[in-house]
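Is this the right way to post structure tokens for a design question? Let me know if I should format differently. Anyway, here goes:
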């Protein structure tokens, strides 16, 4: 018989790891509700044309692409934004603005597997469509901060920039869009020498190189340096002004920005304005990021619609929480086992289990036919908190035995009061 393994770059999530993932996604969902975002669920498989339109050359090369039985070229989604933009041009095109949309699920890229990076990974995704104002950009950063706070994650930092500064410099030098994208892709990888070689003129190269020297420890001072540096160029100057407006709102909203990066770039081609990443310096991993994309919906046939969004890597966040020995709280979610002392009482025990479930108590029912001692021993090993033991003598009194497995204590509890014992 063959011994089947997971496909390379994929993996199973079991037990505590699965619980961590669902817990993180649950916190993202709570954040969405706090900020007024409505959840949408989109297909894992989309047309290749949609997903490749403005994703960037590197991501296009790493998509899982195939033909379906109708000979249509399709792909597994490498991120959420293209699917959400499609929704904005179809099912949601007549909805009042702004649209605030939340998604969570798996995405796929053919990357080289390594710690914290798989070919199937999970993201939570937030998109705000319909506003071009700095308040919208600030909201996306602030909700990311709220999400991280809800996880009790320590030591994270924000890096923020504006793609309009770099694109503005390149546009002033009449650099075509394809070359701009190639330069930005290399800058995203910190391959600055390779990036600057693609600049068509010495002045353009000098301008890009000069951006790298503007960073300071004070984020507002860095913005002022950028403004002064591009003061004579209208497009990058407007971008720098916009970045300053956004930064003030973010800081006023209680989110400290540690780094303003003058030469910041991200791999996706559709960004047009503010961009940011959140990371943990000591672990050297990015946990998420996003930015403004004002032309993507128009590209897909919709009306010109300004938009800004972000995605958070659930795998990376789980890794960071694990490194910090930070377990998401499950306080109040007690595990309860219900078992009968003999086969004749299993029907009554099952009724009690069902009644507890209807009251919102999570219950495991003994289904292995084990003797009571073995069943309790197994429950203890699996860190079950309480055992409800249905015995003939107690049942005649309308009661059961409630055993605290950790404390090795037990008491008689009336069945009608049993659910209240788990209302922590």
């Amino acid at each position: 018989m063959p011994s089947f393994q997971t496909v390379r770059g994929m993996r199973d999530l079991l037990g505590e790891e699965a619980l961590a993932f669902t817990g993180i996604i649950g916190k993202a969902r709570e954040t969405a509700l706090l900020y007024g975002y409505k959840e949408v669920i989109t297909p894992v498989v989309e047309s290749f044309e949609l997903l490749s339109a403005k994703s960037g050359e590197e991501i296009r090369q790493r998509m899982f692409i195939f033909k379906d039985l109708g000979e249509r070229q399709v792909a597994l989604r490498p991120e959420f934004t293209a699917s959400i933009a499609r929704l904005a041009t179809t099912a949601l095109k007549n909805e009042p603005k702004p649209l605030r949309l939340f998604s969570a699920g798996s995405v796929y890229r053919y990357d080289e597997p390594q710690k914290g990076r798989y070919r199937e990974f999970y993201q939570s995704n937030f998109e705000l469509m319909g506003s071009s104002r700095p308040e919208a950009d600030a909201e996306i950063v602030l909700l990311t901060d709220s999400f991280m706070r809800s996880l009790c994650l320590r030591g994270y930092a924000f890096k923020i920039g504006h793609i309009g500064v770099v694109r503005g410099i390149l546009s002033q030098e009449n650099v075509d869009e394809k070359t701009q994208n190639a330069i930005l892709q290399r800058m995203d990888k910190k391959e600055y020498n390779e990036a600057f070689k693609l600049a068509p003129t010495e002045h353009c190269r000098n301008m890009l190189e000069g951006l790298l020297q503007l960073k300071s420890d004070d984020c507002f001072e860095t913005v002022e340096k950028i403004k002064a540096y591009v003061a004579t160029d209208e497009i990058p100057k407007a971008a720098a002004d916009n970045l300053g407006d956004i930064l003030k709102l973010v800081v006023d909203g209680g989110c400290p920005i540690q780094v303003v990066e003058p030469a910041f770039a991200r791999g996706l081609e559709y960004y047009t304005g503010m961009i940011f990443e959140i990371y943990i310096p000591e672990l050297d991993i990015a946990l998420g990021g996003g930015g403004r994309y004002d032309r993507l919906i128009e590209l897909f046939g919709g009306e010109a619609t300004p938009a800004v969004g972000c995605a958070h890597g659930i795998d990376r966040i789980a890794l960071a929480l694990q490194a910090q020995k930070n377990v998401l709280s499950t306080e109040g979610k007690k595990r309860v086992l219900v078992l009968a002392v003999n086969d004749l009482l299993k029907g009554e025990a099952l009724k009690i289990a069902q009644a507890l479930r209807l009251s919102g108590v999570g219950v495991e029912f003994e289904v292995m036919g084990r003797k009571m001692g073995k069943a309790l021993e197994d429950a203890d090993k699996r860190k079950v908190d309480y055992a409800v033991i249905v015995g003939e003598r107690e049942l005649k009194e309308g009661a059961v035995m409630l055993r605290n497995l950790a404390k090795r204590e037990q008491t008689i509890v009336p069945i009608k009061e049993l659910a209240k014992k788990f209302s922590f």
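Format looks fine. Someone answered above. Worth noting: The chain has a mean pLDDT of 92. Residues 141 and 250 are 7 Å apart (CA to CA).
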